[in-house]
Amino acid sequence: MKVCFLVQEHPFLDARIFQKEAKSLLKQGYEVTMIVPRVKGCLFDISGKMFVDSFKSDIFTYEGIKIITYEQFYPHKNLKNLNYNIKSGSYHRFNDLLTKIGIEQEADIYHAHEFFSLYSGIGIKRTLHATKAKDIKLIYDSHELDPDPHTTNNQTTKIMIDMLQFMLKEVNYLITVSESIKAWYQNLSPNLPIEIIYNSPPLSPNLSFSKRNNDTFSAVYEGLIHKTKGNFNKLIEITEICNKEIDFKFRIIGGTKGIERDQLLVPSHLKDKIELLGWIDYTKLPLALSNVDLGWIDLEPEQSLNHRYAMPNKFFSYLNNGIPVLVNNCNDMKKFIESHQCGHVINKMKATSEDYADAIISLYRNKSTLKKMGINARKIMKDVYRWEEMEKRLFNIYNNL
Length: 401
Hints:
Elements: E1 2-6, H1 15-27, E2 31-38, E3 59-62, E4 65-71, H2 79-88, H3 97-105, E5 109-112, H4 115-132, E6 137-142, H5 154-168, E7 173-176, H6 179-188, E8 194-196, E9 217-224, H7 232-242, E10 248-255, E11 274-278, H8 285-288, E12 294-297, H9 305-309, H10 313-320, E13 325-328, H11 331-340, E14 343-346, H12 353-364, H13 367-385, H14 387-400
Parallel strand pairs: 1-2, 1-5, 2-4, 5-6, 6-7, 7-8, 9-10, 9-12, 10-11, 12-13, 13-14
Antiparallel strand pairs: 3-4
């Protein structure tokens, strides 16, 4: 069976798309092709850094997976025409590069990873049916809620949701990442089969809790540093407040994004309190997360429904390494933490630096509770949520198709 991943925005080495799903399907015996975007002729890494001196060929095979590249385009600028094309029921006006290359593959299953790659998937499905009498299966893998009704321009949101309702009629299976996002899609398309595949990593090596430093209390942030995700000023303030009472350190794995990304400037008086590891290889995350007491997530659920419903990669990375999670009031993460007793939730949608610092100091003073949370985190990942369990769900979807 030939599988074709359609990617319009993500880097080709994306943890969910390449490292987990594509590799799992390859292992299961599927022939996997990925059609992925370049920017100004270059593929790009998860950090946003361009691969200037590598991956230069338009088509190549990497770790057993065929990669076909194309120059990224920006379909949102032409939204009204795209909406017309979807509603027309025809295939004639689908002329973007992703659709054209996808048609040439004549795969059995197409797996779209964003709103606009789903649009191309619809064009591919209609074209192959009309011109080749080939009935392909189409999966939509919604990594997040897009469009987000709380953050997108109202008119844009209206058009995109309108498009989505029509596109979902031609989708054979939908995959998403949280219970709340699943419920949102069920409301749009009650009869569509939907499965949740969490952003879980493969189970990391069993790390010893006894190795953690009892004198210093440390927290970690993994991922993109942005004003709505991992606010750097807030992280600095938390570090300053905590160090008035305890010996506290913050570790950052990841950072800002892009070629000309801003440098994260740590104040001189906190140079020994904030450790910047930068973007690291996916396989090295467990080592980078070792000897840490707490994993920090700070989102903006007031402004974003997607944030409210999120279950991000970092959440499961922390739990996978036996690290309890500290998060503000985001629906799905809160329910998970309270159900499995694997972290601490600040019951505010907009938590301040002082709120986080108070929680950190309290957890520092309750090490036995914190240790139980860490043990619970590791156990629930090992028993239920590790990628080795998630890929069973993925295989089941493909088998059903």
